[in-house]
Amino acid sequence: AGHEAVLSCPNTSNASLLLVTWKRNCSSCCLLSYRRDHNETSRLNCSERITWKYSPASDPALRIYPVNLGDEGNYTCETASSAGNFHFFFSLTVIVPPMVTLTHDKSRVAVCQASAGKPPADISWIPASNHSSEEEFHHPNGTVTRVSYFGWAHSSFPSVTCLVTYPTKNQTLVMDLRC
Prior knowledge:
This protein is mostly beta strands. The chain folds into 2 domains: 5-92, Immunoglobulin-like; 99-176, Immunoglobulin-like, CATH 2.60.40.10. Helices cover 0% and strands 53% of the residues. The chain has strands at residues 5-7, 17-24, 31-35, 40-44, 50-52, 62-64, 73-81, 84-92, 99-104, 109-117, 122-126, 132-138, 144-151, 159-165, 170-176. It starts with a strand and ends with a strand.
C-alpha cells in the first residue's frame, strides 16, 4: 500500500497492436482502453491513480499509484492485433506493513503490538517465554492487529526483545526491564 504497482501486458508478437483494454474484474470497476487506428484512449470509472505507465502505443502497462487496499483484486489485459486476440490475467495482492510498538504496564507485562498489517505480522520474544500470550483483532478493511504480552514479574532478565516478522521487513524492539 502507498507504493506503485505496474502490471505489464505482454507483447505476444511483432504484429502491430490494434486495441488494448485493461479491466478490473468486478462490476463498475475501472476500464482503460487504447485504440491505435484512432490514436484514442478511453477511461471508465477510473480514478486518477490508475493510468498507463507509458504510452499505450509503445507499452500498454497499467500503473496504479499510490496503491490502496481497495485496488486488490483480479485484472485482465485484453489485446487485439493482426496475430489474434489475447487475454492476460493478473491478481494484485496489497501488502500493508504494520505499525509496531513496545510498551509495558504496571503489572510488569511487556506489550508488543503490530497494528493494522496485511497479512498479519508474527510476533516472538527473546528470551522465549512460557509467560507470553497473544490476541488478534481483525479490522473491516482487511488488516489485522496482533498484540503479544510478555510477563516478566518473576524474571531475572535485564531486557526483553520483541521480534516482529513481516513479508517486507522485520523489526526488532528492545525494552530494558530494570526500570
